[in-house]
């Protein structure tokens, strides 16, 4: 039974608690639980705008949640919008560009550069704690529309 | 005792439910073992020759390696052979030797004068990262091309060659020669600028 649960957690779905201010206002600083779908591990089927759970780049036992803002081949702004020299960089093969929703309190690709897709553990698909915010978490990024 | 097990196994074929359950548990056992304890994999390619699969480029013969997979990012030492997800292709696993660990300074060396592989003359391996190289430096895609890799990409440590029979034995952590020069450093290695800001 424990064995089956192990395999399920590693290859199908898991629920994790979140902590930290980097994803405000999408996620609270503490005490939220999210469902992570492991089908998306190693960046499979990931699209720009998705929330992903990743292995920490410097502390392999830790995990983090960030938003994907660039996939291989995309051009992204290297620094915080409005700061720096406005340099655009191309995301290399096998990598993505990560950003926290709370730009002033997030350690992300602006500091460490492109992030290997292989270290993506899964995609954040739903929130289960707190119950008042229970529900699916969709990719809210939309294509640009032409307005008259 | 073995008879009871065998008769139980045969008996379970007559009960579809029990058979499905036993199969599921069996598969889960194998998958969990491969995920967390050990895995056997063949080595293709010639980047680790002559240490692993020395005849791959002539006869195509492969060494089969037993990898230890329990917390592979722990106690990674210079000289060990590790398997890792390649940074340029998230579905590909490769095996190389650990040349330097966090805090060490590496002076990468080009294959030939004028053919620059790494854009910096020297580099200090950051915290939580390792510098890896193939033993066959003429034919290896490694840290000289893509830089230090995160320990989070490491999937296992090569422990034993288990096939072919005449090459059975331990691998890794021996004396090794690296193409690049390594200046051993203490400490935990650095973080990117602005990490603590």
UniProtKB/TrEMBL annotation, chain A:
<dbReference type="InterPro" id="IPR052064">
    <property type="entry name" value="Mito_IMP1_subunit"/>
</dbReference>
<dbReference type="Pfam" id="PF10502">
    <property type="entry name" value="Peptidase_S26"/>
</dbReference>
<feature type="domain" description="Peptidase S26">
    <location>
        <begin position="2"/>
        <end position="76"/>
    </location>
</feature>
<dbReference type="InterPro" id="IPR019533">
    <property type="entry name" value="Peptidase_S26"/>
</dbReference>
<dbReference type="InterPro" id="IPR036286">
    <property type="entry name" value="LexA/Signal_pep-like_sf"/>
</dbReference>
<comment type="similarity">
    <text>Belongs to the peptidase S26 family. IMP1 subfamily.</text>
</comment>
<keyword id="KW-0496">Mitochondrion</keyword>
<dbReference type="InterPro" id="IPR000223">
    <property type="entry name" value="Pept_S26A_signal_pept_1"/>
</dbReference>
<keyword id="KW-0999">Mitochondrion inner membrane</keyword>
<keyword id="KW-0472">Membrane</keyword>
<feature type="domain" description="Peptidase S26">
    <location>
        <begin position="90"/>
        <end position="128"/>
    </location>
</feature>
<protein>
    <recommendedName>
        <fullName>Peptidase S26 domain-containing protein</fullName>
    </recommendedName>
</protein>
<keyword id="KW-0378">Hydrolase</keyword>
UniProtKB/TrEMBL annotation, chain B:
<keyword id="KW-0645">Protease</keyword>
<dbReference type="InterPro" id="IPR000223">
    <property type="entry name" value="Pept_S26A_signal_pept_1"/>
</dbReference>
<keyword id="KW-0378">Hydrolase</keyword>
<keyword id="KW-0496">Mitochondrion</keyword>
<dbReference type="InterPro" id="IPR036286">
    <property type="entry name" value="LexA/Signal_pep-like_sf"/>
</dbReference>
<keyword id="KW-0472">Membrane</keyword>
<dbReference type="Pfam" id="PF10502">
    <property type="entry name" value="Peptidase_S26"/>
</dbReference>
<keyword id="KW-1133">Transmembrane helix</keyword>
<feature type="domain" description="Peptidase S26">
    <location>
        <begin position="117"/>
        <end position="161"/>
    </location>
</feature>
<dbReference type="InterPro" id="IPR019533">
    <property type="entry name" value="Peptidase_S26"/>
</dbReference>
<comment type="similarity">
    <text>Belongs to the peptidase S26 family. IMP2 subfamily.</text>
</comment>
<keyword id="KW-0999">Mitochondrion inner membrane</keyword>
<feature type="domain" description="Peptidase S26">
    <location>
        <begin position="23"/>
        <end position="110"/>
    </location>
</feature>
<dbReference type="InterPro" id="IPR037730">
    <property type="entry name" value="IMP2"/>
</dbReference>
<protein>
    <recommendedName>
        <fullName>Mitochondrial inner membrane protease subunit 2</fullName>
    </recommendedName>
</protein>
<keyword id="KW-0812">Transmembrane</keyword>
